[in-house]
Amino acid sequence: MKASQLILIAAVTGTAAVLAGVAQAQSGHDHHAASAASAPVAQTSSAEMSEGEVRKIDKENKKITLKHGPLKNLDMPPMTMAFEVNDPAMLSKVKVGDKVRFVAANPGGRLTVTAIQPAK
C-alpha cells in the first residue's frame, strides 16, 4: 500500500508541475523574464512526460489508446493500452497516428492521462 501511495503522490506532484508550466506558457508573459524559481518547474514537467503514439480515440467513453514507451512514474514497460482522460477536451487536441508526450497517473487504480501534447 505504501508503494501505491508514493506513486499517487508522485503523479499528483507531476500533474501540478505540468499544470503550472501550462499556466505559465498560456499567461503570455515573456519567458525570458520568468523568475529563476519557475525554471525547475518546466524542466521537471518535461522530464516526467512519457512518449507514445495515439492508436485510438474514444470520445464517448473518454478514453485514449496509446502505444507508449516505459512509464517510469508507474513502473510500467512499453505497451499499447487504453487510458481514461482527466479532461475530455484533451481528446480534441490529438488525432490517431500523432506522436505525443503525456503524463499518466493511477488515481484510485484507474490509469488516467492527466496531460497530453503533440510531440515536437
Strand order of the largest sheet: 1-2-3-5-4
Largest sheet: 5 strands, mixed, barrel
What do we call the CATH homologous superfamily? Copper binding periplasmic protein CusF
Give the topology string: H per helix, E per strand. Answer: HHEEEEE
- β-strand amount: 25-35%
In the CATH hierarchy, the third-tier topology is known as OB fold (Dihydrolipoamide Acetyltransferase, E2P)
Kindly state the percentage of residues in helix.
25-40%
CATH class: Mainly Beta
Mean pLDDT across residues: 76
How many discrete domains? 1
| Poorly predicted ranges | 15-45
CATH architecture: Beta Barrel
Please work out how many helical segments DSSP would assign: 2
Write a short abstract of this structure.
With 120 residues, the protein is α+β, with helices and mostly antiparallel strands.
Fold and architecture overview:
By secondary structure, the chain is of the alpha+beta class. The protein has one domain (2-118): Copper binding periplasmic protein CusF (OB fold (Dihydrolipoamide Acetyltransferase, E2P), Beta Barrel), CATH 2.40.50. 29% of the residues lie in helices and 30% in strands. The protein has helices at 2-26, 39-48, and strands at 50-58, 63-68, 79-85, 99-105, 112-118. A five-stranded mixed beta barrel has the order 1-2-3-5-4. Helix 1 packs across helix 2. The chain is globular and about 25 Å long. The model is unreliable at 15-45 (pLDDT under 50).
Lay out the secondary structure:
Layout: H1 2-26, H2 39-48, E1 50-58, E2 63-68, E3 79-85, E4 99-105, E5 112-118
Parallel strand pairs: 3-5
Antiparallel strand pairs: 1-2, 1-4, 2-3, 4-5
Helix pairs in contact: 1-2
